[in-house]
Amino acid sequence: MVSRSLQAGEVADLAARVEVATAAHQARYPGDPGGRQPVSTVYVPADRFTAATAQDFGREALRLLDAHAPDGPALAEAFDLRGDLAGRVRERVAAKLGSEPVEDLRVDFEDGYGLRVDDEEDTHAAAAAAAVAVAVAEGTLPPFAGLRVKPFCDGLHRRSIRTLDVFLTTLLDATGGTLPAGFVVTFPKVVAVEHVAAFVSLLERLEGSLSLPAGALRFELQVETTQSVVDDHGRLALRRFLDVAGGRLSGAHFGVFDYTAACGLPPAEQRLDHPACDFARHVMQVALAGTVVRLSDGSTNVVPDGDGTAAVRRAWRVHAGQVRHSLRHGYVQGWDLHPAHLPSRYAVVFAFLLDDLDGTSARVRAWTEQGGGDGGVLDEPATVKALVAHLRRAVDAGAVKEADVLAATGLAPGALHPAG
After folding, report:
1. What does the H/E/C string look like for 141-194?
2. Are 174 and 130 in contact (CB under 8 A)?
3. What angle in degrees, to the nearest 10, is found between the helix axes of 402-409 and 357-370?
4. pLDDT attached to residue 367
5. Which of 245, 262, 98, 236 is closest to 184 using CA atoms?
6. Could you give the residue ranges of the DSSP H alpha helices within 70-148?
7. For the ranges 242-251, 366-375, 380-389, which has the lowest average pLDDT?
8. What is the pTM of this model?
9. Res 376 pLDDT > 80
10. Pick from 249, 328, 324: nearest CA to 287
11. DSSP alpha helix (H) spans, 177-308
């Protein structure tokens, strides 16, 4: 029998303190909510949105792919991919653009839409909502969708509230009171925690007026002001935003152009891979890691200045470089604004997900069967969890089939997408 100096009763108070602290920590940091996370969010100005927008984007993106990267070698050249990988990536990108070109769609009433007189914005809000309802009925709405309203700063709060009210009222009238699956509202340019609290109250009141279940309206914040990173008291603002969100906050999306402008960067340096953006992204990661809030990077404003191969590939290279930068920093999701962004988005993301897929699968199999350590890598549980998440993203995005991943890893059916 081993000897002890302290009996169980003598440390019971310490154990109770630890358990209280652990429970509080688990409540604040429950971890990723599970389920699919899109890799691309397409923003479309509200006055240009129709029920066919997602399909129109897909057709144009596939036309550009076929015209300017018609086969594996051409794709390898366009996106600086390994030759042995490019053929597989080309095949999967073409399939993606044909079947699900837009994963996540936002009808934009903010910067992409601009300022309009009230009657005009009311009309566009109602028309866009009706188009969403048509897409729902036809089964063509992307798996995730929503709208971006105007911010509460700069005196635009009344217009923001009115647009959200018109849009939701029209949508629910057309759908019989049911929100589309994956519906979310984007709340931009946050400068004060009080604005977040007011927006949450607005969502609560709309739920009551529209007979929606409590908590049905979820939102994501755009981190595009310096005050969204560090508040006026020098604290990390995102934690305070999360605290007042009432469990409704599902995402934090970085806004590159407003943020870099707020930091005083000249226009030529307002780009996604600028070090100032890295700082903001890293703060977002540290502040929200372990919570249910998922992160998304921003967009590029570079689009082809012509329809020739040289012009299209110039735009692709800029976008591809920025997507790679996001992926290296742990951001698997980003915004896209133009059909030309979809081939470069999916080509780079699929190459990232497929690169060394065999090695990733082997490491997971080694851990599953032997507890790790095979192949010269001593993986830890946290690393294995990240490896499995990487494989899950590859399946969800369409880069690989789930059956192939399960066969390669030895994981049980359902392991990539556990219930609950």
Report:
1. CCCEEEEECCCCCCCCHHHHHHHHHHHHHHHHHHHCCCCCCCEEEEECCCCCHH
2. yes
3. 50
4. 84
5. 245
6. 72-79, 83-99, 118-138
7. 366-375
8. 0.93
9. no
10. 249
11. 193-210, 237-244, 256-262, 275-288
Calpha distance 344→330 (Å, rounded)? 18
C-alpha triplet 177, 178, 179: angle, nearest 5°: 125
pLDDT of residue 378: 63
Q: How many CB atoms lie within 10 A of CB 254?
A: 25
Q: What is the 3-state secondary structure (H, E, C) of 130-156?
A: HHHHHHHHHCCCCCEEEEECCCCCCCC
Does residue 198 contact residue 252 with C-beta atoms inside 8 Å?
no
**Number of residues written out for the chain:** 420
Residue 99 lies in a domain: yes
List the one residue out of 379, 392, 288 whose CA is nearest residue 36: 392
> Which two tokens mark 33?
């909510």
Domain that holds residue 370: 357-409
CA distance to 242, 260, 279, 324, 344, per residue, from 318 (Å): 33, 18, 21, 10, 9
Residues paired with residue 42 on neighbouring β-strands, in sequence order: 105, 336
How many angstroms separate the CA atoms of 93 and 70, rounded? Answer: 11
Return the DSSP state at 337.
-
Say whether both 265 and 373 belong to one domain. no
CA–CA distances in Å: residue 123 to residues 26, 135, 167, 202, 228: 45, 18, 10, 21, 32
Query: Which residue matches tokens 């997602």?
Result: 54
CA-CA distances (angstroms) from residue 113 to 106, 120, 159? 12, 11, 13
C-alpha dihedral sign at 244, 249, 255, 260: positive
**29 occurs within a structural domain:** no
Same domain, yes or no: 378 and 330: no
Distance CA 108, CA 89 (A): 31
CA distance linking residue 183 with residue 217, whole number of Å: 8
Verify that 169 and 284 share a domain, yes or no: yes
